[in-house]
Amino acid sequence: MLVAYKHDEEHILREVVPEEAEKGSWLHTVNPTEAELKQLSEITGIPSIELRGALDPEERSHVELEDEYVFIVINTPVLRETLDSYDTLPLGIYVTERYLITVCLEYSGVISIFLNNQYATFRTYKKTRFLFQIMNRTATLFLQALQQINRRTDVIEAEVRASMQNKEFFQLLELQKSLTYFTSALKANGIVMEKLLRLRNNVQPRPLLKMYEEDEDLLEDVIIDNKQAIEMVEMYSLILINMMDAFASIISNNLNMVMKFLASITILLAVPTLVFSLWGINTGVPWEGEMIGFTAVTGIAVFATVVAAVTLWRRNFF
Fold first, then answer.
1. CB atoms within 10 A of CB 194
2. How would you class 36 by CB atoms within 10 Å of its CB: exposed for 0-12, middle for 13-18, buried for 19 or more?
3. What is the pLDDT of residue 92?
């Protein structure tokens, strides 16, 4: 899918034909075909092989400064098939003298707010500010995802307190893995933002990223939000690790208590079994052949069982 957008004079975002996109347009593509990559290359002048670099799911966040364009890759959060599985998805952004181009392998929640023109100060022709607004939206989504992970952790914690199954631990493991992905992505994004901030001192005759004071302030705010997200993900990771260790110990302790209770029941059952076994041997025994024998033996078994039960109770086996 290859689409183009441009704000008109009334600040309304309108879709335009990609081949007829004017200066200040935004070209957006999701999982493009070879034909669409070739078409995008012809429109922007960026080689297809360079455009394809943003489609690598393992691409790390970085900045490349070329003569005709600036290539930025940032990692964005994405929710997978379950509530406990988050991942990161690279988003490629190309800034040329005429266009801003976004290339992504999958649909990204970062871009949706711009497609719906719901970002108040978003303008396609303000390419540098648009770039920083994309980064700002990315940091916001990371913070929202972290809050969702924190709430999900509280739910799983309540479930673990009342359960001895492994399902909740697998859910915590998925969340821990998601936080690991977030840590790597946020730190790499932070490096990209710091590098872009240093470009304000760029003295090229025609800098592709023209930063005004408002743009610098926006980028600095994004860097602060990204650092806050890094602190939150590190804190939540530590909480998850400690929680998993604590609940593992609790479940192990509960299992020991169950085993102790079962051992006590086994001892209590063994006492009458021993008594009746002694009166079942093939030799002469007290009360042999007498009607009182059964009552007496049963009474001895009950008395011995009660003594054993009291002894175990005093030793906190129950």
1. 13
2. middle
3. 93
pLDDT in tens, 253-279: 878 888 888 888 888 889 888 888 888
Can you read off the two tokens belonging to residue 20?
């007829």
Parallel, antiparallel, or unpaired: how do β-strands 13-16 and 2-7 relate?
A: antiparallel
62-97 pLDDT, tens digit each:
998 888 889 999 999 988 766 668 889 999 999 998
What residues form DSSP beta bridges with 73? 62, 92
Measured CA to CA, the distance from residue 151 to residue 139 in angstroms comes to 19
Question: Closest Cα partner for 25 from 42, 50, 44?
Answer: 44
Long-range contacts (CB closer than 8 Å, 24 or more residues apart) made by 47-55: 51/92, 51/94, 51/101, 51/103, 53/92, 54/90, 54/91, 54/92, 54/103, 54/104, 54/105, 55/31, 55/92, 55/103, 55/105
Report the C-alpha gap between 239 and 245 in whole angstroms: 10
Both tokens assigned to 17: 């034909």
